[in-house]
């Protein structure tokens, strides 16, 4: 068995990462590819929690919301994350990986309510725990929910899966001379105005000493390489 750098991690998946090349919704091949990558690290003995967004279906701050009341729009976004969480759970079961969904909003007929002791028990049993409905409160992003759950679960690192393989000195799609940071401190990220995540989530991670790794979930084998401590993505640390 390979020696892993981390024992327990919180993976933040955006809803958009589930779309593949589709304009919205969930792409079957894409979600299966992501799930297989996660199962690969779970098979190494790594305990995995996931916070998933809902931007592929509905986002409270998007143009879809129009002039809708912000709190109402955010609750709709939370419901979208529950749909994504159920899709992930089903995909995990299809590859033989046990998974559980816990929701910050109560909907007992569909998923169980979030309960920290139970979530930790599931992770210790080798089950993937998918945290849905954000924090359960409007005005907070799923980045903040990921930072919160990562701290509550005692995770060693929060892994933010994006469509870019790390944090760069400039937009690599626009600037061919942009270079990837291997590691930066929280203070350096603030000084250089690197947009790692929203301020609330970033501050919580810094205060709780919860390191962040930004990497591309679309890059084959990237998740496993991060788990093994290889030079993949960008580490943000104190």
What is the radius of gyration computed over CA atoms, rounded to a whole number of angstroms? 17 Å
Summed over residues and divided by their number, the pLDDT gives a mean of 94
Beta-strand proportion: 15-25%
| Class per helix and strand makeup | alpha/beta
Spatial strand arrangement across the major sheet: 4-3-5-2-1-6-8-9-7
Alpha plus pi helix count: 7
Residue runs with pLDDT of under 50 for 5 or more positions: none
CATH superfamily, by name, is: Acetylglutamate kinase-like
In total, the number of domains comes to 1
Number of β-strand runs: 9
CATH architecture field: 3-Layer(aba) Sandwich
- Which sheet architecture does the biggest sheet show? 9 strands, mixed
Structure summarized in a few sentences:
The protein contains seven helices and nine strands.
How does this structure look, described?
This protein has 238 residues and is of the alpha/beta class. It has one domain: Carbamate kinase (3-Layer(aba) Sandwich), CATH 3.40.1160. 34% of the residues lie in helices and 18% in strands. It has 7 helices and 9 strands, in the order βαβαββαβαββααβαβ. The protein has helices at residues 28-42, 70-94, 116-124, 142-152, 186-191, 199-207, 222-227; strands at 8-13, 47-52, 99-103, 112-113, 128-132, 157-162, 183-185, 211-216, 234-237. The protein has a 9-stranded mixed β-sheet with strand order 4-3-5-2-1-6-8-9-7, with helices on both faces. α4 runs parallel beside α6 (199-207). The relative contact order is 0.16.
